[in-house]
Amino acid sequence: MYFAALSGLAWLAVLLLARALRGGPYATFLAVLLGIHTLSSLAVFSHAGVAWPLLAYFQAAVFVHFALLIRPSLRGPLYRAAVSVPGSWFVAVVFLSVPWGIARALGFHPWGAWLPFALATAGLVDSLWASEDERHVWLDGAVVPSLRRHESRGDHDPRPLRIVQITDPHIGAFMSVAGLQAICARAVARDPDLVLLTGDLLTMESQRDPAWLAAALAPLKAIEGRCYACLGNHDHEALATVETALALNGIKLLVDDMAVAETAAGPVEILGFDFVWGDRAGHLRRVTERFPRSEAMPRVAMLHDPGAFHHLPDGSADLVLSGHTHGGQLGLLRLGLRGTVVSALSQVPDHGQWALGTTRLYVHRGTGHYGFPLRIGVPAERSLLNVHGLWRATAS
Fold first, then answer.
1. Among candidates 349, 348, 359, 351, which has minimal Cα distance to 375?
2. Which listed site, 99, 153, 161, 330, has its alpha carbon 20 to 30 Å from 135?
3. 281, 142: one domain
4. What average pLDDT does range 321-325 have in this prediction?
């Protein structure tokens, strides 16, 4: 009874505060999101037993977290550890517990009420840590008639093109400035030919001050001339912040633009597409017509949203690097399977290698995440990509 009453009062207080300080649209968003969470959490709490003080703390963390997002700002590690992370974990637990709550409301006594807690805890691990690995992409030149996964194998080039892709760090509750700084430092230590940033660097917490993103990307200054970026959808929310931080660190931002990178493996054209919501086919066609392929060198394109890949004119790039999906974020990769929520609900490439025509796509799982509060079954990615056959594909 007390849990329900206090949760209801907290929901109303956050809603009124959001309305007063940030306006109707955000207040409506919080009313729906926290309203569903509050109602669903009552079923979870009713079975808390002796653990009720702990669940009460998690519930408080949820409301504090969303209340402070009304005036979003990056906060320190103590706040993230005490509020943002446990609050996000509990939101995930409650969401995953909805089927059990419905079953109980219908008079059933379902097995496995502990399972949402276990899944969210495993997801917390996938959301906070990622292993370093190396991946290989072969450009085999085969014509693939329809968009599909395509993981060809071939001879290793004596000197493949070595790329570190950084995408979707979403500096905020889970990705700190220090965390992205460490990812960038590790990228530099791997001595890649190219570091390509494919968008969504920020969240609402990190948009206000360009110094935060500039500090996070500072290690890349050591390999200036090898770093390029394109824009993601969230970058448009604070475009000046992103542009300033990239420029301060010598990272070339390509917005529907092309550059030639002189690498140890040979010269490469880098084409960076802007993120657009509408007429994606027309947008990609116009950009590729403005920058026709050179016959003298291969081309790597940066396209934040892999959902636009099938609109890319065939042959206008050898390899396209995307992010945006966070690898599907919720899926079965930890079980050795490929399925994710994205692949189950759409035709959008969710992770890994894909092909259409002669062009190949690599969808990075992301260094961070956003939206649903955790990754579950889809770990973050920090990989070095070895691209084989790039110059053979150009020659053919």
1. 351
2. 330
3. yes
4. 98
